[in-house]
Design a protein that fits this description.
single chain, 477 residues, Rossmann fold, L-fucose Isomerase, Chain A, domain 3, 2 domains, six-stranded antiparallel barrel, elongated, metal-binding, manganese ion binding
């Protein structure tokens, strides 16, 4: 959960402040209690701000705790310059909050502070209402989760293993822009490191990992050519080599080019990418490490933001096919979906009983296992960072994953590349709208409705929110 700082602003006249201070404290305590009950850590200023000196000193005190989000609580008319001074001392994500109480002009105070912040170009969010109401608390929490995701990017390192894949401009981003806008450094690593390091992985633990997959997967379909025990072990060795690179270079998230060099001459990275993105592997529970196939940088960045909000694995897929007769999209990618999506269970065995390891097809002559499964049904939010004339925007859609009877699932999957993982997605947007302006071949998703969080992320990062269909809000011009 998030660490949230709270500063409460008051009237700058001593006789007025004396009259309203008790009410200000009451509102602040109510906000703090609601957030703590929801599991967040709250850091409160020692004093209600009613002078310019307190605005600076209390803001610095709260900022020292490095909160994910700082809330300026404005329950009464508060002198707007207090918010301006405090904002200068709180460089992280900022939110203005006002209760709605006809006895006190808190809303007036919030709007005055907001106008001042707008004039100086300070980014912030706004929430108003009674925090005891679930929808108001939900909006406040959405901003907190968004702030936590954005703060999580600052000072992080992305490991780019390999260069541009197969001519994809959308997979390559400007490291200078990433550092300036997101605070993310990019470490360039050659794919040869995976080949070289894989040879040194201990044979015993590789064999044990292969046997674990053979026991728990629904099937490991060796064919003696494209998938053999030796090729599967090579993929496992690549996984361990990538884990070694992550540890050595302190990588927070990553991407692997793979195509065409590794997929033609070494092995596919499907097993490596799937289990890096999983919350477990054959050695037990672990943290999800976002790893984008084809070293797609904006994919990885999108996924890291979504992971920061949801704390779950994040889907990576191609927008492969649209079944017009069913209004269903088949989201397919070359073996990269985390196995967690098969059932979304905390128990790896529950997920893996729906996972098959099939031999790779003609696209990948080096061979290896493709991690095949069909995503479990449920509500999802889909997103993707793209750029238009150099400016970032966030494509956002709402929708769900669906499953049908076994025969229908089989028929639909066999219409594309069966061996790869699939997700049957129903978007709450018309296909014409998606195909006419969606700006990437890749798409990403997490469970639940994350629209409010993504709107807040866009505000905090100064990028354009571009919602499709029910996600609302067209691209800003």
């Amino acid at each position: 959960m998030a660490r949230i700082g709270i500063l409460t602003m008051s009237d700058g006249r001593d006789f007025v402040h004396k009259d309203v201070e008790k009410f200000c404290r009451k509102v602040e305590a109510k906000i703090s209690s609601a957030l703590e009950a929801a599991g967040h850590e709250v850091v409160r200023a020692r004093e209600v701000v009613w002078t310019n000196r307190l605005a600076v000193s209390e803001a610095r005190r709260v900022a020292d705790a490095r909160p994910d989000l700082t809330v300026f609580n404005i329950p009464v008319w508060a002198f707007p310059h207090f918010s301006m001074l405090a904002a200068a001392e709180t460089p992280g994500p900022l939110l203005l909050f006002s209760n709605v109480d006809p006895r006190y002009p808190g809303m007036v105070g919030m709007l005055a502070a907001a106008g001042g912040l707008d004039q100086v170009g300070r980014t912030y969010g706004r929430v108003w209402g009674d925090v005891s109401e679930p929808e108001v608390l939900a909006r406040l929490e959405a901003h907190a989760r968004a702030a936590r995701a954005v703060n999580g990017l600052r000072g992080s390192t992305f490991g780019r293993v390999g260069g541009r894949p197969m001519g994809m401009y959308t997979a390559v981003s400007n490291p200078d822009q990433w550092m300036q806008k997101f605070g993310v450094d990019v470490e360039e690593i050659d794919q040869w490191e995976l080949v070289r390091r894989s040879e040194g992985v201990e044979a015993r633990k590789v064999r044990e990992a292969r046997e674990w997959l053979e026991r728990h997967a629904a099937g490991v379909h060796y064919d003696g050519k494209q998938l053999t025990p030796e090729l599967l072990e090579r993929q496992i060795r690549s996984y361990y080599a990538m884990r070694e690179l992550i540890e050595e270079w302190n990588l927070d998230f990553s991407g692997i080019k793979a195509q065409p060099e590794l997929t033609t001459h070494f092995c596919t990275m499907d097993v490596t990418e799937a289990f890096l993105n999983d919350p477990y592997d054959w050695d037990g529970e672990k943290e999800v490490h976002v790893c984008a196939t084809e070293a797609d940088m904006d994919a990885a960045l999108t996924m890291q933001i979504l992971k920061g909000m949801s704390e779950t694995p994040v889907l990576f897929a191609d927008v492969r096919h649209y079944h017009a007769d069913r209004d269903i999209w088949d989201l397919v990618n070359s073996g990269q979906h985390a196995t967690w999506f098969a059932e979304r269970s905390d128990d790896p065995a529950e997920n893996l009983r729906r996972v098959h390891l099939y031999p790779e097809g003609f696209y990948f002559p080096a061979g290896g296992a493709s991690v095949h499964h069909l995503a479990a049904p449920g509500e999802f939010t889909f997103a993707r960072l793209t750029r238009k004339e150099g400016r970032y925007r966030m494509h956002v859609l709402k929708g769900s994953f669906e499953r049908y009877d076994a025969a229908t699932n089989e028929e639909l999957m066999r219409q594309s590349t069966y061996e790869w993982p699939h997700a049957f997605a129903r978007f709450e947007a018309e296909a014409d709208e998606v195909l006419s302006r969606y700006g990437s071949n890749h798409i990403h998703a997490v469970p639940g409705d994350r629209i409010q969080e993504l709107r807040a992320v866009c505000e905090l990062l100064d990028i354009d929110y571009d919602g499709f269909g029910s996600a609302g809000g067209g691209e800003r011009r």
